[in-house]
Amino acid sequence: MENSEKQVKPKTLWHDWFGNLFKVSLIPTGLEVETDAPVMQKLPEADIVIIRRSGTRWTKEQLKRLPDGIRHTQAKHVLIELKYTESINVDAICQIAGYYKFYKIQHNLIKKKELKCFLVSSKTPRKSTLQRFLYHQTRYPGVYTSQFPLFDLFPIISLNDLSNAPHNILFKLFASKKKSSINAIQKVKSDLYDQLPEPLKTFLTDYINRYIIIGRDDMDYLNMTTEERNQFRLEWIAKHKPPDILDYFSTSELLSERSASEVLANYSTDQILSGLSSAQLQELSKRMNSENLIQ
Description:
alpha/beta; Trna Endonuclease, Chain: A, domain 1; seven-stranded mixed β-sheet; 7 strands; 42% helix
């Protein structure tokens, strides 16, 4: 088969989740967020574009949701290219340089300060790559700028290396290192969760449950053990109250960790029956009997 006939692999779902995080987090603050944004009439498409339609600076609410690097630019258009499985290299820099040029033409951006492009890397960039392109860390951990005038247009943000400041935590969920991502989950649970709006809570719970606790073959980047996953499941269940838990966890899963009396007290008969097999119903009946719930 000729190269021209080969089918292009679709983008990994990481870009969708990362882009949707920006949408759920930033749109309520008054920002406009687009994903897979066209930078020319035909492909390629940029992963994420944030547009500030009003004002000359980020608002206080917007700053709470923007990570280091991005929160320090005043550009009205911010283009983000996520490198999740790929490393930062020449191709990545050439790619974002193309996006920069075509986006400026597409949107008639004349002034240099109107657009800022960021390479966001889930992996920590190689030291040799940073040295080659004269990138150096700024005063903000994980944020790199270059001494080359061209490459200085494209700062690098390393999700593994961002600080644990509250405005960085949500983005560190996409870090490639197990320690960084797990620490971010714990910070979300202990420090941020109760302060977040409901749509963002729902997004985070769905993301953490589906891709970190349950895991998927094509996205199992943390290589967590079964014990680690179970521990996270128990911790995340504790963040929810019935009947919200059933949005993310089945009745059978809850029965493995909770008493029959607790399940019966918090869930309707329909919810219980729809979530259990015949064998599980028999087990529930036995547990009800042992807990003296059946007279």
